[in-house]
What we know:
3 helices; 2 strands; oxidoreductase activity, acting on CH-OH group of donors; elongated; two-stranded antiparallel sheet; GMC_OxRdtase
Amino acid sequence: MNGTYDGEDSCFNQCRNSPGVVNLTSANPRDTPNIALHSFFVGVSGEEDLQAVCEGMGYGIEAAFERIWPPKQVSSEAKMKQFAKDEARGHHASCTPPIGADDNPHAVLDSNFKVRRVDGLRVVGASIFPKIPGFYVVLGTYMASKKATDVIIAEAQAA
C-alpha cells in the first residue's frame, strides 16, 4: 500500500472476470513467467469487478468506528475507483482451464487430472475449477490435491 496506516480494511471480492495472462519467457521451465493479472482491465466485466470492490470498500467505511482506509481525501466515486485500481491486490490468483468432459472445448484436463493430448502431465491446482471457488482458493485446492492423490495411487496400484 502507498503510505502507512494504523489498520487495514479487507474487502474480499474474487474477480472472476479479469482477463489476465501468463506467458512463458523462455523454454527453460525454471525461468519466471510473465504474469499480468489485468485486474479491472476491460469492458463491462472489468467495470463490474471494480464496482464490486468499491461497494465493498464503502461497506467497510460505513462499518468502521473511525475511517482509516482509504484516506478521507478519497471521497468521490472516481477517486474511490482510482484508489481501488492502485491499491487492490490479489491473494492466490488463479485461472480456469478446467477439468471437464471430453466434448467440452474449454476442459484441458480429464477427470484423472491428465492434460489432454500431453503424455505424462497432470495438473493439480486451482486451475482445475470451472469457476474460481470463492474467497480462499487454497482450501478447494487442498481438497482437489487429496482427490488427485487418491486417483494417482489407484492408477499406480492397478498398473
